Amino acid sequence: MNNKKCILVSLDDNIQELSALAESLGYIVNNIFIQNRKTPDPKYYIGSGKVNEIRKYIQDNNIDLIIFNSHLKPSQHYNLENYIGIRIYDRIGLILEIFSNRAHSEEARLQVELAKLQYEIPLLRDWIHKARYGEKPGFMAGGEYEVAQYYDIIRKRIKKAKEKLKKIEKERDIRRRQRRKLGYYLITIVGYTNAGKSTLFNLISGESIAVEDRLFTTLSTTTRKIPIQERPILLTDTVGLIDNLPHWVIEAFHSTLEEIFLSDLILLLIDVSEPIDIINRKLKISFNILIPDLKPSNIILIFNKTDKIVDSKNDLKDNPNIQEKLKKIEIEHGVRDIISISAIREQYKQTIITSILKVTNYPKKLSFSLPNITEAQSFISWLYSNCDILFIDYKDSIYISLRCQEKDEKYITKTVNDLKGL
Ligand code: GDP
Ligand code: MG
Description:
Layout (H helix, E strand, L loop, with lengths): L3 E7 L5 H9 L2 E8 L13 H14 L3 E4 L5 H11 L2 E3 L1 H12 L3 H27 L11 H38 L3 E7 L5 H9 L16 E5 L6 E5 L9 H6 L1 H8 L3 E7 L4 H15 L8 E6 L15 H14 L4 E3 L7 H14 L2 E8 L4 H11 L1 E7 L2 E8 L4 H13 L1
Parallel strand pairs: 1-2, 1-3, 3-4, 5-7, 5-8, 8-9, 9-10
Antiparallel strand pairs: 6-7, 11-13, 12-13
Bound molecules: guanosine-5'-diphosphate and magnesium ion.
């Protein structure tokens, strides 16, 4: 912990995550400045009156850092640092700094370096532009030439980092193939930071890896062997997704995400105690990042931290709070394979393991509708005894969503078609 002081600046009062991020980096949040305005000021992001107020506050209170709850334009960044005279981060700058602090493996370090360099490019472009047009006389002695040279160096470093990462990715790919060859079933825990991924990992594996009530503990992934069935499982805990990250930052961490794409099964964890609109937004982003490369049948959606909204296990399924959220998520995202748990309670270990085994035993997921006729009844009984029914709804037609064994898929599809043809 460095116990340095920072202040936060925001255009709205949605600063909880930013505050947690700052604390993750070891800063004490000394004060929060909120300016209610719809659009940012082009020069300073906030109005000049506020800038002066902050400048005075910084001097009077020995503040080390200012963090803006947004993405600053390069020129705003420059104007602010130049006028206030201390270090300024915007949201991405802060996140990259945290990544940088937590990057222990060579791969993580390269990914962070790459992201940081890419972050600097537009700042540099702005500087070059200003040096060229004499708006920054004396800036970086030597002006345009030196900045341009520096720009060149950065571009070369980006190229080099990318090449090294490619090489590491290849090695990682080889290791992964070996795991598969050895017959491992690969399961990865995914979700936003603080959703409880590491807690769940510990619950399932009986391990104890760092769990902290802050946004990051590590950038690396942890993998353990889980002996719950004949085909051994390798369970991996990953770094969390973070709110409001631009696409290129996520790109920089692509090889970490690759671990996710190549899994047999994803446990997607959601903190259910958060408001439904936040849950929906996070799910949407998770799906946008994950689903294009992953079949929905390979995802189990897990509602975690149910203990925060209900106090006993018994009425979990009927609890109106959870029911309402489940319903909304079903409608919004079409997901029906949801389980509700509390990763801090030992009793849910079995719930999770049962769900995992269901997926490994019934790997195929099918959704279809049947005509609501008597001939369908015996088929439905068969489904009940041979599959894992996820959802069934009797309307004019019967809507069914289920998991089945690979060997039964053909029979089911054929019978559905036959019944439809009756
Ligand atoms: P990660 O960032 O997703 O790996 O999250 P962690 O596993 O580090 O957990 C973040 C915080 O949430 C820690 O303080 C955990 O103790 C807490 N937490 C995790 N699961 C639960 C849960 O089911 N209920 C409650 N109340 N807290 C939880
Ligand atoms: Mg964790």
